[in-house]
From TrEMBL, chain A:
Keywords carried by this UniProt record: 2Fe-2S, Iron, Iron-sulfur, Metal-binding
Annotated InterPro entries: NuoE-like (IPR002023), NuoE_dom (IPR042128), NuoE_N (IPR041921), Thioredoxin-like_sf (IPR036249)
Record GO terms (molecular function): 2 iron, 2 sulfur cluster binding; metal ion binding; NADH dehydrogenase activity
Gene name of this polypeptide: nuoE
Residues given in the record as [2Fe-2S] cluster binding sites: C93, C98, C134, C138
Lineage, top ranks: Bacteria, Pseudomonadati, Bacteroidota, Sphingobacteriia, Sphingobacteriales
Name of the protein: NADH-quinone oxidoreductase subunit NuoE
Spans traversing the lipid bilayer: none
TrEMBL record, chain B:
Record field: transmembrane: none
Cofactors that this protein relies on: [4Fe-4S] cluster; FMN
Role, per record: NDH-1 shuttles electrons from NADH, via FMN and iron-sulfur (Fe-S) centers, to quinones in the respiratory chain.
NCBIfam families: nuoF_fam, PRK13596.1
The family this protein is said to belong to: Belongs to the complex I 51 kDa subunit family.
Organism of origin: Mucilaginibacter arboris
Highest taxon of source: Bacteria
Catalytic activity: a quinone + NADH + 5 H(+)(in) = a quinol + NAD(+) + 4 H(+)(out)
Keywords of the record: 4Fe-4S, Flavoprotein, FMN, Iron, Iron-sulfur, Metal-binding, NAD, Oxidoreductase, Quinone, Translocase
Name the UniProt record assigns to this protein: NADH-quinone oxidoreductase subunit F
Domain NADH-ubiquinone oxidoreductase 51kDa subunit iron-sulphur binding: start-end pairs: 340-385
């Protein structure tokens, strides 16, 4: 269920972000700035890792639309996070074709390795993970992606997951988390 | 080896860049189109080519273009559907990654043919790397004078933009895509009016799949008639097939339409057979939305003829014994796969992706998911199987958009062809948790067709 948490968080937009907004709005007819909403929300999420109410309200006033028009979009699409996530959100495909070649095993392995359930964040804030639907890479399955640049990792094995988590600073993180949770 | 029209040059070093693409004959079709053809003549060539939409529905592209309304004083739009999210389909992502300029070139020709001065490529939001690739390609093309004002000195002007989605399968449906591009939730619109009359911002709009747009390039370069010589019957040209599942060589293959399914699965030129020396149990031939077929019906039609990779042959036998070409997402299941589990997985997918506007889809997909879940885990009843058929029938045809049908067909077809496996999950509630039903009789030779009785 959707919860809009941390309503008190304030997200200050940098001048560079406003510049990006301006560039985006230019793609549409002048009377249709709302079309910029999805791309602008991506810019905001890339900057802060999630969309706060304050951030969404700022977007609404920038585009001169009602805040609800932003909330309803942000809550409809799966890419937008309405609460803080781990710095690295591992999104593993859990749809049919990936499951034929072991996606479920990989998800279990990640859960075990990170020691947190789907959708939860490791205590040090570094990782979270979730199952997502077909990532249009079924021939290279199992696959996972990591935002905000959506880097792709294909033909996953347990060893590859180990290496990936290691590369992202996971070894220290996992040890620290074990201490925190024990 | 079959002819390659889209992927011919993908292994050329640097083909992602404008210069290399151009040196391989790229953008010659734009020059030909803008300098020697009228928009009407381009539409005519595309009609002659017989090209059918590659996004799933297979509607003839030339005809779709000719329906576009041309009222005075209103802009027209071309929107490329690059939202690729149908489970089993991964060709558009591949094409945009490997040879982005082919899509840009196709967009310029198609926009000119339709009289669009601003066009959008709506890319699935997760495809951030592809978005960057396309943006770079657009900048290069603009730099070289193929986009912007007065293209090639012809007076035609075109701006091309990439729009990211937000992660929602339903935005692949063309009216949901338009809503999403307008900055709203991806709720499909009630039709009519069709986008050809009132689409993006109420203006006449054509939505086409990435592969359809790319195919326009060889069609204009070689002529529609040449294109139509490839393929079989009303399935002209080449098609990208995304092959996944338990295959020796899963991946993307450009086939000449009409290749026998058996050859596609087993020959070394294509998938190289079933992985790990296993046997084939079932195939979903056109993406998760099309009916699943057991091994014996995918390689042969009910009349014992070889089944071909073509729109007609894959649908031979209707839904009773056939399936559909769909988006060309070819998913192979080996003898160890559980059909009940996969059907549950797909039902979960459609439930998750339903936009929730119509109650048959919103409630029906959730209900099917729940019932399939209990069957999969050995808590089901025999009556659940008929219940699923009943629910799927109540969804089919009763919804605003085809996602309802897409959710109903996989369930109905799985039960049609694999009913004994579903029943086994009820009669063997414990065993079904330990092992799978196996290949059973699903690859057995088909019964001889009834001889035609002379009257
Ligand atoms: C639920 C749903 C999802 C769809 N997803 C896609 C998609 O990801 N890509 C696509 O090209 N077409 C998709 N389509 C088909 C489009 O609505 C549309 O028919 C297609 O983009 C038209 O292009 P074409 O004529 O070139 O095939 C989808 C349709 C439905 C009902
Ligand atoms: S069929 Fe489903 S996805 Fe399509 S409009 Fe209705 S509820 Fe939405
Ligand atoms: S099913 Fe996993 S990428 Fe398509």
């Amino acid at each position: 269920m959707l919860k809009i948490e941390e309503t008190t968080v304030v997200h200050e937009f940098s001048p560079r972000m406003y510049q990006q907004f301006q560039e985006i709005v230019k793609r549409y007819p002048p009377e249709q700035p709302k079309a910029a909403l999805l791309p602008i929300l991506h810019v905001v999420q890339a900057a802060f890792g999630w969309l706060s109410v304050d951030g969404m309200d700022k977007v609404a006033s920038y585009l001169d639309i009602q805040p609800i028009e932003v909330y309803e979009v942000a809550s409809f699409y799966t890419m937008y996070f309405l609460r803080p996530q781990g710095k690295y959100m591992l999104e593993v495909c859990r749809t049919g074709p990936c499951c034929l070649v072991g996606a479920e095993k990989i998800m279990k392995y990640i859960e075990h390795k990170l020691g947190v359930k789907e959708g939860e964040v490791t205590p040090d804030g570094l990782f979270s993970w979730r199952g997502v639907e077909c990532l249009a890479a079924c021939g290279f399955a199992p696959v996972l992606q990591i935002g905000p640049e959506y880097t792709f990792y294909e033909n996953l094995t347990e060893e590859k997951v180990d290496q990936l988590i290691e590369k992202l600073g996971g070894k220290r993180s996992i040890e620290a988390n074990q201490q925190l949770t024990n | 080896m079959g002819r390659k029209l889209l992927l011919e040059h993908i292994d050329v070093e640097g083909i992602q860049t404008f210069d290399v693409y151009r040196s391989k004959g790229g953008y010659a079709a734009v020059e030909k189109a803008l300098k020697t053809l009228t928009p009407e003549e381009i539409v005519e060539e595309v009609k002659k080519s017989g090209l059918r939409g590659r996004g799933g529905a297979g509607f003839p592209t030339g005809m779709k273009w000719s329906f576009l309304a041309k009222p005075e004083g209103k802009p027209r739009y071309l929107v490329c559907n690059a939202d690729e999210s149908e489970p089993g389909t991964f060709k558009d992502r591949f094409l945009m990654t490997k040879i982005p300029h082919l899509l840009i070139e196709g967009m310029i020709i198609a926009s000119f043919a339709l009289g669009a001065k601003t066009s959008y490529i709506y890319v699935r939001g997760e495809m951030m790397p592809q978005i960057r690739i396309l943006e770079k390609a657009i900048a290069e093309a603009k730099n070289a004078g193929f986009l912007g004002k007065n293209i090639l000195g012809t007076g035609y002007e075109l701006e091309l933009y990439v729009q990211p989605g937000g992660g929602a399968y339903i935005c692949g449906e063309e009216t949901a895509l338009i809503e999403s591009l307008e900055g709203k939730r991806g709720n499909p619109r009630i039709k009519p009016p069709f986008p050809a009359i009132a689409g993006l911002w109420g203006c006449p709009t054509v939505v086409n799949n990435v592969e359809s747009i790319a195919a326009v390039v060889p069609i204009i370069r070689d002529g529609g008639e040449e294109y139509a010589k490839i393929g079989i019957g009303r399935s002209t040209g080449t098609k990208l097939i995304s092959a996944s599942g338990n295959l020796v060589k899963p991946g993307i293959y450009e086939i000449e339409l009409g290749v026998p399914v058996e050859e596609f699965i087993y020959s070394d030129e294509f998938c190289g057979g079933i992985a790990n020396g296993k046997r084939l149990k079932a195939v979903v031939a056109g993406g998760s939305s099309v009916p699943i077929l057991p091994a014996n019906l995918i390689t042969k039609t009910i009349n014992q003829e070889a089944r071909l990779m073509s729109y007609e042959s894959l649908s031979d036998g209707g839904f009773a014994t056939g399936s559909m070409m769909g988006s060309g997402g070819f998913i192979a299941f080996d003898e160890d796969q559980c059909i009940v589990r996969n059907t549950w997985n797909f039902a979960r997918f459609y439930h998750h992706e339903s936009c929730g506007q119509c109650s048959p889809c919103r409630e029906g997909t959730g209900w099917m998911e729940k019932v399939l879940h209990r069957l999969e885990y050995g808590h089901g009843k025999l009556s659940d199987i008929d219940l699923l058929v009943d629910v799927s029938k109540k969804i089919e045809g009763n919804t605003i958009c085809p996602l309802g049908d897409a959710a109903a067909w996989p369930v109905a077809s799985a039960i049609r062809h694999f009913r004994d496996e579903f029943e086994w999950h009820v009669t063997e509630p414990r065993l079904c948790l330990e092992r799978n039903y196996g290949l059973a009789h699903y690859a057995d030779p088909l019964p001889k067709p009834e001889p035609a009785v002379a009257v």
